[in-house]
Amino acid sequence: METIVGIRFKQAGKIYYFTPGDLDIAAGNQVIVETARGLEFGDVVSGPKEISEQEMSHPLKAVIRIATEEDRKVHKQNKEKVPNAFQLCQERIDKHGLEMKLVDVEYTFDNNKIIFYFTADGRVDFRELVKDLAGVFRTRIELRQIGVRDEAKIVGGMGSCGRQLCCNSFLGEFAPVSIKMAKNQNLSLNPTKVSGVCGRLMCCLNYEHEHYVELLKELPKVNKMVDTPDGVGKVFDLDILRGKVKVRFRNERGPDQFITYDSKEVSMYKKPEPKPKGKFESKIDLNAVNDFLDDLYEEPKTEAEKSDIVEKPAEEAPKKMKLPQAKRDQIPTSSINKKLTGIDGKDRSQSRGSKRRRSGRRRPNPNKSAVPEKKKEE
Fold first, then answer.
1. Which residue pairs from 165-172 have beta carbons closer than 8 angstroms and sit at least 24 positions apart in sequence?
2. What angle do CA 178, 180, 186 make, to 5 degrees?
């Protein structure tokens, strides 16, 4: 097990974890730690707690010391230098004519680096600006481009709710927000109403999203057909928090009727299953066809076989051999028709073709174009 403490370097900033070592550290203490940027002055926001080594993604650095009165004075002096550095940098930006907006300036605790935060629509070539600032401050200069959400977090402001911005007051990290969250909460999709000061979707849309998702699982969707105590209707509107469903009933003789039900009183409408189509039932007796074919095409027997059949009793007479399928396919359909219907298939006196032949009419050939006959001049 490893003991860690959570330290924050900015108001509502991200929490970073360090090991306290042999120091007796509690929440609310101010400490000095070493980071990738150098020495930093931070506040302990979460007291010591133990975690397993499997939960640690990488080895953690130890806290150097608890901040002394001298460390607090240095930190205060660095804060007092920020306005002057901000003004000087803004003058140099105007001088070089760069399209960038300066947002904030930050000094490291040991004054080894000055970080300038800015926003811009695209990439900015600030190499000359860095050289100019390094000549003025005589230290390392870093220009870091940030987004509009980070800008709102640093600058702060008031939200549409009338309170201080969440990102500037208590949010340590930005959570992903999508327009689907506004749809699930039945909010207006007007961009001016669901967007914050930064112009992006408001972070507060994420606060109640999980609760709404759980409630929506028990409710039908809008425009779906449902079964109600009064019959089948279509869902018109939902009151998600109260669990109410507003159902619309069609009325052909008057205005439509709207009734509100509790979510437990309605259920999804299930369409009646279509009746399975029955198989084609032929009116022809297939057994009679098989018997006819066997009688007509039974293989001839030798004299010995015939005498055997006569000598044997009737009950012991061999059964007729059924015609193989290959021979059944060769049987002319006229013979079968005559056996079953009594009409010879070869008698075509009643057919339409025979009537046309008797009347002398010929059926035109659609594939053969009509060609007018030319009179030969003699």
1. 165/196, 165/197, 166/203, 166/204, 167/12, 167/203, 168/11, 168/12, 169/12, 170/12, 171/12, 171/203, 172/8, 172/12, 172/13, 172/14, 172/15
2. 125
Task: Output the tens digit of pLDDT for each of the chain's 378 residues.
Answer: 788 899 999 888 888 999 988 888 888 899 999 988 888 999 999 888 888 877 777 788 889 999 999 999 999 999 999 999 999 999 999 999 999 999 999 999 988 899 999 999 888 899 999 999 999 999 999 999 999 999 999 998 999 889 999 999 888 889 899 999 999 998 888 988 999 999 999 999 999 999 999 999 999 999 999 999 988 999 999 999 999 999 999 888 778 899 999 989 998 888 777 766 555 455 566 676 667 666 665 555 556 555 555 454 545 545 455 556 655 666 666 666 565 555 554 544 444 555 555 555 566 666 655 555 554 444
Give which of 143, 124, 204 is closest to 169, Cα–Cα.
204
Select from 163, 170, 166 the least CA-distant residue to 203.
166
Q: What pairs with residue 5 in β-bridges?
A: 18
Helices (H), 102-169: 127-137, 148-155, 166-169
The predicted model scores a pTM of 0.63
Structure tokens at 60: 């953690």
Residue 95's CB is within 10 A of a number of other CB atoms, namely 11
* Distance (Å, whole) CA 136 – CA 78: 16
Q: Token pair for residue 90? A: 């803004």
The token pair that represents 318 in the structure block: 């061999």
